[in-house]
Amino acid sequence: MTDTTIFGLYAAAAVGFGLYGLITNPQPLRKIVAFNLMGSGVFLLLGVVGRRGAAAGFGNDPVPQALVITGIVVAFSATALAVALLLRLFQTAGSATLRDDAPASASINQSGD
Amino acid sequence: MTVATILEMVLGAVVLGLGAWTIAARETFAATVGYVAYGLLVPLIWVRLDAVDVALTEAAIGGGLGGVLLLGAAARLRASEPAAAAETPGKIVRLGAAGASVMVAAALSAAVLLLPDPAPTLAPAAIANASATGLANPVTNVLMAFRAMDTMLEKVVLLLAIVGVWSLASDQAWGGRPGPRHQADPHGVFAFLARLLPPVGIVVGIYMFWTGADHPGGAFQGGSMLAAMWLLVIMAGLTDTPPASGRWLRLVLIAGPGVFLAVGLGGVCFGLAFLAYPPTNAKPLILGIEVAMVLTIAVTLGLLVAGAPERSPQR
Amino acid sequence: MSYPATVLDAVTTTRGFLLVLSIIVPVAGVLLAFVVGGRHIERLAFATILFGLAIAAAILVALQQSDGPLVYLLGAWAPPLGVALRADGLSAVMMMVAAVVISAVGVFAGADFRPAAAESRAPFAFWILLLGIWAALNIVFLGGDLFTLYVALELVTFAAVPLVSLDGRAETLQAALRYLLFALTGSVLYLLGTTLFYGLYGTLDIVLLSHRVRAQPATLVAAALMTTGLLAKTALFPLYLWLPPAHAGAPAAASAILSGLVVKGSFFILVRLWFQVMPGLPGFAATQLLAALGGAAIVFGSVVALRQERLKLVIAYSTLAQIGYLFLMFPLALSASGQLESGGALAGGLLQAVSHATAKAAMFLAAGSIYAVLGQDRIAGLGGVWRALPIAVLAFALGGVALMGIQPSGAYLAKELLLQAAAEKGQWWWAVVLQAGGIFTAAYVLLVLAHVLAPAKAPIASDRPALRIQETAALALALCSLLLGLLPWEAYLPIAQGIPSYRLGPEAVSKTLSKVLLPILGGTVVATLLGRWGPPPAHITSWKPPLAVVDPIRRIGLALGDLIERSDGFLRQWPVAGVTLLVLVLLFGGCNADGLVMRMQARPASGRHQLFA
């Protein structure tokens, strides 16, 4: 097993941790952190794929590197949008939960009742 | 097993441990701090993977700006903590989630172990075509030439994220200044740092961008460095965020994708193709796009961290 | 490692620049609208929409005159290093539908999102996001590279999520956050699969991959991850927790886009992945699993729709059911040799998507008109509304009729094609699901119409007068969906035997009658048994004897409905949906592995399992 492969296994584990946190943690901000951890795992995996493709004097295939850079910016935008939504939800509703206990018909109830 | 390998394994284990901490920690703020530490160590792995361009980006955007964003949110959400903790799912659900996550991670690990040897690569193709742009940094070549479409679209992603964040403003605050007005002790450490660091940071940011043509670095890394310096000055209360309705601000925010689009169309006019550069002028054209992109990236990232407009525009 | 240097389509075709235009025109619209803002944003958006509509039409024409797909190599770089845009019949059709729906929604929204003298928040965000979704969808339909498609998927999500919470109420903010977080989870899974594909084959180009993909274990993992990620974004049952509150809570114009177009984006990429990247990989078990989820979505979504109290929620749950319909084509397209074929079944599935896009957008717009006038949309309070809004009610009814699959709608044609494929493949059980789907659709459409056409309980106190232009936009879309079956689809979709014709004759009349009567009669029965009705009106209580027979059956129906409604609440909990998501990854991996083992046993002599030489 090469060093690169070990990083690949770490990446898979990071994805696993992220998935677990995303599913079980009720606080939306923790879900956002878990999403970032998962994303970081995917990017690392791309880095491992690129490292395995080292050739022509490059220690890492430039194409996966470019994909990771684009991916990091996209993931950051997603984080910013999610955090802004969460803060606004907290400000408006006074709580920050994703649970809708009441059936949807009641939770989006309108004027007119 | 060499010393380097052992060091790598230790580094990986520490990073992974921090990652696990962000999931397992009881308090959200503590988990966020853990994530920031994680984000600061991951670039070391990227250096070990011989991907310095990514290491710089991950440190600046993933660790730095992402950390500021998450820490700020965690501080503002402290009051929601007890209610959230009460909603923790039961043991059966947690066990099921753990089992399923482990199995998915195991399948992924198996796939990693089964990747082909020798691995397919586009590195030789990237080298063979590097002469078309005159840039020596292969990653910049991929971003600005071979896969220029992705890079341009990603600028549109940033713009739509700004529109999305701004759309969360209240109607009264529309067009106003994003985020809270920060106040810091004008003689405190923070204000001191905010006066000391930016001149250095701005020089480093511009250098990172400029050197990106031939060495690791580029518009993303330079832009996020500049954004970090701008945020530092804002958070120290030395300056305020610009009002969202400002015409100049709007122009800066679309400069990156706008110039990219214009140069891309220029390629069509010269009888080449959309997003193709004439070989003789490729380098200046790409640098031109990158100058616009650095500005746009710096301002966009800063405003994404600042959040939705919160204060009504003053006339 | 060397790969074949030449690919058949590694050149830009003559009219390929149209593909670039279809993307950069809405992108330029977004950039300009962001700078201009203020009062002119609406006019700018209309100009962009007209331009975009013309480009979509030009692509349809250009494709008909060309021998193969239109191709454009961006920056003149050929894949695998560069990125190609390609338009085949499927892309051209989807692009045209997107253009038509966006135009109609633009007309409708012109009244709702008219900027005042000063720039205001909602119109600014709406018009920019609308153009953003359009640009992103066009990239989804044209992108030839799995990573470019990833960026496009994220663009769609980032533009769609803020539309959900445009009114800023706590409920819609929560719906938007759930949508964003679940969609992001799906994207990460998709990106994971993409990463593995690059590591395995050194390219992300769809055409190149189709030549290189082999049935290997790592490929199966990649395929399972990508498939499940896309299903989460498409909201296929049981991964739909985000859909009902998001689609029902958004402003009407946004709901029409979200339900009509946005979920089709990830569906389209799934079709590309299964039919083009790896047509030989998913075997019998995987395609049956996918269609079984679709079948479950039809039953589940329809029953929950029947039990909703609000019109917009009925339509949102109807979307859940109709998404299920889109997945019935997969087992019907599987050939005897285990390859997914681009034939009648694929054409049927695509037509279903087209037909649902137009009909559902029409129904949401009609519901929006009704809501605007009544100030609420409780079904029990819809009596007499047809007097105030005759055109909107007609649009809703025609949209519903089109969805049911009654001639000459697009859904009818889709159903015929799928039934034909089911008969050819000997998979009669999907024919049953297809027929049942029509009946269930009829049930909730009839339930709503019965309330709408009932006499008003109280005079309608209207918030504002009906806007004829809004109602007309809805009606135009409904008519579009209803007449889709008359268009010459053979030019764009893989329809081999030709389309069943509409010639008149005694036999055709009786056949048509049976096809109309089956869903309507069946739907009436289902609606009676499972629907949520108030106390029976006076003129029905006089039918004592039949009620005595119906009552016990209805009680069973109600119990069944209760059960399904309760499991709906269960499945929409975040942790449950999350675990289900992972279980589906494992299931799809397992199903594909099953197919792999079978194939390896079938070809012991060949030594290597090269499937697509």
Would you mind describing this structure in some detail?
The complex is a heterotrimer of chains A (about 110), B (about 325) and C (about 625). Chain A is mainly alpha-helical. Chain A has one domain (about 5-95): Helix Hairpins (Orthogonal Bundle). Chain A is about 75% helix and about 0% strand. Chain A is built from four helices and no strands. Chain A has helices at about 5-25, 30-50, 60-95, 105. In chain A, helix 1 runs antiparallel to helix 2 (about 30-50) and helix 2 packs antiparallel against helix 3 (about 60-95). The longest helix of chain A has about 30 residues, at about 60-95. In chain B, helix 3 (about 50-75) runs parallel beside helix 12 (about 280-305) and helix 9 (about 190-210) packs antiparallel against helix 10. Chain B is mainly α and about 325 residues long. Chain B folds into two domains: about 1-75; about 130-315, no CATH class. Chain B has twelve helices and two strands. A two-stranded antiparallel ribbon of chain B has the order 1-2. The radius of gyration of chain B is 22 Å and the shape is globular. Chain C has a two-stranded antiparallel sheet with strand order 1-2.
Topology:
The complex is a heterotrimer of chains A (about 110), B (about 325) and C (about 625).
Chain A: H1 3-24, H2 28-52, H3 62-93, H4 104-107
Chain B: H1 3-24, H2 28-48, H3 52-76, H4 81-85, H5 91-113, H6 123-128, H7 138-146, H8 148-166, E1 177-178, H9 189-211, H10 219-235, H11 247-269, H12 282-306, E2 309-311
Antiparallel strand pairs in B: 1-2
Helix pairs in contact in B: 1-2, 2-3, 3-10, 3-12, 7-8, 8-11, 8-12, 9-10, 10-12, 11-12
Chain C: H1 17-36, H2 41-65, E1 70-73, E2 84-87, H3 89-112, H4 121-142, H5 146-164, H6 170-201, H7 206-212, H8 217-234, H9 243-249, H10 252-277, H11 284-306, H12 311-326, H13 329-332, H14 344-374, H15 385-388, H16 390-404, H17 410-425, H18 428-453, H19 468-483, H20 506-530, H21 538-541, H22 544-571, H23 574-602
Antiparallel strand pairs in C: 1-2
